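Blinded run. Sample ID left blank on purpose so nobody reads anything into the name before looking at the predicted structure. Input follows.
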Amino acid sequence: MMNTNNLTELLQTLCPMFLLVNEDGKVTRVGSTLQKLRPEKPMEGQSFLDIFELLRPRAVTTVSGLMSQAGTKLQLRFHDAPRTALKGLIAPLPEGKGAVINLSFGISILDAVRDYALTSADFSGTDLAIELLYLVEAKSAAMEASRSLNLRLQGAMLAAEEKAFTDTLTGLKNRRAMDVLLDHMISSKSPFALMHLDLDFFKSVNDQFGHAAGDYVLQQAARIMGEETRGDDTVARVGGDEFVIIYKGLTDEGVLSAIASRLIERLRETMMFDNVSCQVSASIGTALSTQFPSLKPAEILHAADLALYAAKRNGRSRHCLYSQLVDHSHR
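Blinded prediction complete.
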């Protein structure tokens, strides 16, 4: 007949959440996985009913009552925290020598794996729990891969959108980005100023020194405009040597004229490219969103254009406000 040690070894292989209890209900052997749930509280030597609270069948409150439940499914949980729920089945040993009680987690297996850091090594190789763990692991991996893919797709979309809205030469926004921003500003009824800037004598730089010099001048002009604007402002290159600056929330003509003066002064400074002096200046026209009762993008752009051309007619390297044209026309 199989002795206790051989039986324990067999049970450890087949069902590592087993208990051997004697006829008095004392635990004589415990499976490694089950003991892992209470690593600091050895179960051997304790009464089964002192370790576990029997929830089903409710009528069982004694060892003898427990031993009579052969083949009956048990529902139980630990008396102490964490009060993990378990399922069990009791199989009496021959000659009333006690019983084998095999336990499992049932539907609480995922919580148990998380709470007790269990792995596949803690279960029998044929336990369906292994399949479930593999499924959960595969699902987690698939979800992580999906999240990673979504993040990459979002990143690619953002990069593509940024590229679509960026002027590749200067790094500024392009005309498309300006159109989108104008629509947004107008629909949100946010006050703003629109400054149209054109580089004077830029064609001469291109004709005399070549396109590389012209590109350098455009890049330097973009840098200067970026330095003379705030974080909320937008600078866009909308043509070869044409730029639009949108000043969010700024409609003070005195402040705008001061900004325009600084831009003109800085852009008038000589730019050195391959030991040649590149000289340009800037003409600027500015219109305010508050000057139009029912504003449309084309309307404010046209107003800024009119102010720009007025600045050019007056000798270039100048700034003109659209309000000056309107006031003059009403005289």
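Unblinding after everyone has recorded impressions. The CA atoms of residues 166 and 173 lie 4 Å apart.
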